[in-house]
Amino acid sequence: MASRGVASYRTEVWSDWCPGCGDFGILAAMQKAFAELNLDPATTVVVSGIGCSSKTPHFLNVNGVHTLHGRGIAFATGIKLANPNLTVVINGGDGDLLGIGVAHFVALGRRNLDVTVIIHNNQVYGLTKGQASPTLRKGEQVKSLPVPNLQDAVNPIALAIASGYTFVARAYSLWVDHLKEILKAAISHKGSAVIDVLQPCITYNDIYTAEFYKDRLYKLEDDPEWDPVVRDPGEEEEKKATALKKAEEWGTRIPVGVFYVNPLKDTYEDRLAKRNPAYSRENPPAFQSIYSEGSSLVGPEEFRKLFDRFIVKVSRR
Amino acid sequence: MASDLHLLVGGAQGSGLETTMQVLAPAYASLGYGVMANREYFSNIVGRHSYIHMRISSSGEPKALQYPVDFIGAMDAESVFTHYDDIREGGFLLYDMGTARTRLVQIASMEPDLRNRLLENFKKLGIQPPTVESVVSYLEKDVGVNVIGLSFTALFEVLIKKHGLTRAQAQRFRSSILIGAIAGLSGLDREALELGLEKRFGSRPKVLEINKDFVASVADEIEREYGTPLKLAEPKAPYSEYVVASGNDAVAMGKIVGGVRYQAYYPITPASDESVLLEAYEGLKIDGESLGSIAILQTEDEIAAISSVIGAALTGARSSTATSGPGFSLMVEALGWAGKNDVPIVVTYYQRGGPSTGLPTRGSQSDLLFTLFASHGEFPRMILSSGDHLEAFYDAIEAYNLAEKYQMPVIHLLDKFLANMVASMPIPDLEGVRIERGETIFEAPRGPFKRFPRDKPIAPRPVLGSGAITWYTGDEHDEYGHIDEDPVNRNIMYERRWKKMEIADKEIPEEFRAKYYGPEDAKVLLVGWGSVKIPALEAIEVLGEEGVRAAYLHVRMLSPLPKRLISDVLSRFDPENVIAVEANYLGQASKLITMETGFLFKKFVLKWTGRPIYLNELVEGVLDIVKNGRSRVVLSYGK
User: Fold this and answer.
1) C-alpha angle A311/A314/B3, rounded to 5°?
2) Fewest CB atoms within 10 Å of the CB: A47, A191, A313, B98?
3) CB of B399 within 8 Å of any CB in chain A?
4) Would you call B482 an interface residue with chain A, using a CB distance cutoff of 8 Å?
């Protein structure tokens, strides 16, 4: 199939984010990554929750499912399981994915379903005018807050590793090409992938600004010794420990890049197919025929065979 | 010989009570008897009082449960105390003589409310102090109950000696004593009894063998001693085969026939048994060949369950979830999303007693108005409610058809009564089952697709992966599914959604949505829905015998409500003789009918104890209204 240009992944819908919003960088990186991976728009589904970043699907010329606050992962789970041939990318904010939707975030890691999660992490609830999100640190008071935040921050990288994600990375929305490369790796990865994308909220967050990140961010891969990939099951514990330690680094230096990759874990789809060989990508549940000429595939004879244990024949004595 | 046999078997939860039902139901069904069995239990795994209430009917149909019963089998002392007034004169009580000295006040597992009430009752009856012995003696002398005392310990000794079991192992055959006694007293054909045992223990040959021997020996001994006083009349079986199943089972079977390809659930009583059964069928295997695969996911919560079901439905899979009140409470936001986006999902909803945790293992019909109005904003949804097991089976299939044809969520509203009741139903007519998928499209032209054309309320629905590019959003949207807050568009899209309901209301035959049972010249009309159908159908017969010509209007579809048919039926009755029969406080269906037709209900028979509406109390309630002019009768029979 001929490759598709970046432009073909854009819609004519106007992006109504604040000028200078970090979401623009993430959107651009997605369009580029989709183009470079030559994703078929018809079999690609971008799912989102609610919030500024969750408007993303409308700006992408692929299938878009803009769902409920916190529920993007849950919707995506049904989409992927019913048709594992679809490429599924979930977008949500830090409040969406790590606050109201955190149960689904953890559950996805446990399943290792083959989907990609992009956290648009700006430490605030932007669309409701800047309340503290689960990634804003204790004691911090962004300009929209009348008083300092009293709740500790959740660490998305550490939480993802603890939950079982097999591809865990952090990126920065203004480093579009770097993010694009991570996105490509995440989408290509077989299993649950998460990218914690740091993005300035230029309207409500006057702490984590582009200026703040400028001198602090560094790339993990710049260290030639850095190797986040589990190549042998025996390495899992150690690689996780190293990644978790790295995840704690937040101050004068903040790492971006790939923290942890485990390509050895089976995906949920694989686990399902192993338990039930009738479940397969070749014949996904969504596209299975369930009837012929208006009648169910389970006709009188099939019913008897399937439900034999419930059937009692009457014999008069 | 009696035409019907009413049984109650009580004991501690976890002591094998269900076995009695699982053995006796197929055994009697195999002879052509209709069987209905309900299980009442606490939210508890081991120790609290639980009982099986069964009716075996020579009519060949599963018939309504009623009190008093002909036989009570008490596995323990608590059952004797609890059910002492549930047995008829001339009935049989079997109890364990080893519990004779047990005093009521010693029963720690009994709730204080019941204990205090019983203490009061026994005091009035002069049963002092209340022990199993004194209660049994009262029943024998004052009520005319035939008491059969057996030493369970002695019976276990036989098992220990004959089969080399340990005491603990022998005690697991407690339920076999009751099965044997019932088989003996009713002269149950021994081959049928063996068939029942095989259905239950077929996969465990050793247990089966001991059971066959033990049950037969108890049956023979009881028959020798007491004869067969509970022998039933020959069955008038119109069927050559039965499906013996619970409501949960019937719905799961319906879903499989209906083509379910995705189900998600979070564990909840009394819904999860359905999903667990579906899991056992995930490979849809017949003779080693697979008809397809059902993806079943146990989710982290009910929000994820319904959300993933919506996702799966967008891909074209027939998708559903099964839940109860607390779970549905969590699902309502997503229900609105499905309503907004024309997504065909099915929510199978087994009502239990609310509010909040309420009576988690008891039934109710108190969530009709909740399901009708659940979720903010206005959007159409369909509500189907089944009256019995066979309806539940067919409705499980029809729910998918309606969801896909009219592109909206369908709530299949059942209750714990049906969920847990085991009935013998005829083999469904599968030739008559149709699968209708409406405008669902699996191969669409490539490129952006107008999923929500303004001029087509029910539009082609290319699934995700069909070639088309589609967008969906919970925001008000344009024809492509992009956000659109324009007031003109808003009006069009809002009306477009409701137009689907108008079309559905025109197309779905009212005769399917409601049905009138009884004589055309009836003077009294009962109006009900859901499992009320079971006692109501028989109540109108009994009332007829009592000189009250009564009919029953069964409403199977609550949304869209068949208002023309209902209005027509109601107009033929004096409003003073129209009685709403429901397992709730408000008379919710009657309120809905008033809302849709303007007809004001004046008479109610209601129940919200969490126990089923029994035939006897329903008849009494109706008579109380008809003869004594009462307007609202609240039922409360049952332990």
Assistant:
1) 115
2) A313
3) no
4) yes
May I ask the CATH class of domain B4-226? alpha beta
Chain B residue nearest residue A66, CA to CA: B473
Across the interface, of A41, A107, A295, the residue whose CB is closest to B433 is A295
- H/E stretch holding B385 reads strand B382-385
As a whole number, mean pLDDT of residues B30-53 equals 96
- What percentage of chain B reaches a pLDDT higher than 90? 99
Residues sharing a CB contact under 8 Å with residue A225, sequence separation 6 or more, in sequence order: none
**Over B156-220, what HEC string results?**
HHHHHHHHCCCHHHHHCCHHHHHHHHHHHHCCCCHHHHHHHHHHHHCCCHHHHHHHHHHHHHHHH
- For residue A139, what is the domain's CATH number? 3.40.50.970
Is the full-model pTM beyond 0.95?
Answer: yes
A104 CA: distance to closest CA in chain B (Å): 7
Residue B312: which of A81, A280, A304 has the nearest Cβ? A81
Chain B residue closest to A58 (CA)?
B482
Rg (CA), chain B: 26
Inspect the interface and report whether the beta carbons of A278 and B292 lie closer than 8 Å: yes
**Shortest CA distance to B425 belongs to which of A292, A303, A142?**
A303
Q: How many Cβ contacts (< 8 angstroms) between chains A and B? A: 269
ipTM: 0.98
How many domains are there within chain A?
1
CB-based contact B427 A306, cutoff 8 Å:
no
The yes-or-no verdict on residue A1 having pLDDT over 70 is no
Residue B563 distance to chain A (closest CA, Å): 30
Q: Which helix (H) or strand (E) holds B258?
A: helix B247-258
The arrangement of secondary structure in B510-634, i.e. its CATH architecture, is: 3-Layer(aba) Sandwich (3.40)
| Distance, CA of B57 to CA of B69 (rounded, Å) | 13
Local confidence band at A203 (pLDDT 50, 70, 90 cut-offs): very high
* Structure confidence by residue, pLDDT tens digits, B552-604: 999 999 999 999 999 999 999 999 999 999 999 999 999 999 999 999 999 99
The domain locations on chain B are: 4-226, 244-432, 440-507, 510-634
Which residues in A lie closer than 8 A to residue B317 (C-beta atoms)?
A: 82-83, 285-286
Min Cα–Cα distance to chain A from B352, Å: 25
In the prediction, which pLDDT does B99 show? 98
Segment B286-290 shows an average pLDDT of 94
Q: Which residues of A touch B308 (CB under 8 A)?
A: 74-75, 77-78, 81
Q: Is B280 on the interface with A (CB under 8 A)?
A: no
Q: What's the pLDDT tens digit per position in A254-282?
A: 999 999 999 999 999 999 999 999 999 99
- The DSSP H or E segment spanning B578 is strand B578-582
